[in-house]
Design goal:
The chain is of the alpha+beta class. 48% of the residues lie in helices and 23% in strands. The chain contains 5 helices and 4 strands; from the N terminus they run αααααββββ. A 4-stranded antiparallel beta sheet has the order 2-1-3-4. Helix 2 packs antiparallel against helix 4. The chain is rod-shaped and about 110 Å long. The model has no long low-confidence stretch (mean pLDDT 81).
């Protein structure tokens, strides 16, 4: 089929006119998917930040408590240090808790561990350790409230008490 210049231009114009809405449709389909991916990445980063704060809070409380035997007994001070180290997690999450435990082991070749640190070791010297565990329950922002989607974020640190 031989087409004149006018007929070929008309044919191209009609063919292009049918595709003019295709880009809008593709954009309308892709934008919600991209926004959902962006929202999920932001939520993942938020919860990762809270998890790092929980680990740092446990480490800071263990460092405060391990300074000497007086600070090792200051449980309210260690809890306050943990709370100050994780202010965003403390405010955004629920059930923020700090668990403190002091354990002892003998400095000799025996690996016996006891939780009563008042006793002395018969074959060597006692090494006291402070174990701090922090935890909080955080709710993701993308889930509607009341659906029970919570994550428990924890931190753990062990530090030797300096005597």
């Amino acid at each position: 089929m031989i087409c004149s210049r006018f007929n070929c231009r008309m044919w191209r114009r009609f063919r292009r006119a049918g595709q003019s809405g295709q880009a809008i449709i593709e954009l309308a389909v892709c934008v919600p998917v991209l926004l959902l991916l962006l929202l999920g990445a932001a939520e993942f980063a938020r919860l990762a930040y809270f998890a790092i704060e929980m680990s740092n809070a446990a480490k800071a409380a263990a460092q405060y408590g391990s300074q000497n035997s007086l600070t090792a007994g200051d449980t309210t001070g260690m809890k306050a240090v943990a709370q100050m180290e994780a202010p965003d997690s403390y405010n955004a999450c629920t059930n923020f808790s700090t668990t403190i435990q002091e354990t002892c082991t003998c400095g000799s070749s025996s690996s016996a561990t006891s939780t009563s640190c008042g006793t002395s070791c018969a074959t060597g010297y006692a090494i006291n350790y402070l174990t701090i565990s922090t935890s909080a329950k955080c709710s993701p922002l993308i889930f509607p409230a009341g659906h029970g989607a919570t994550l428990t974020l924890t931190g753990h640190a062990v530090q030797e008490i300096l005597r």
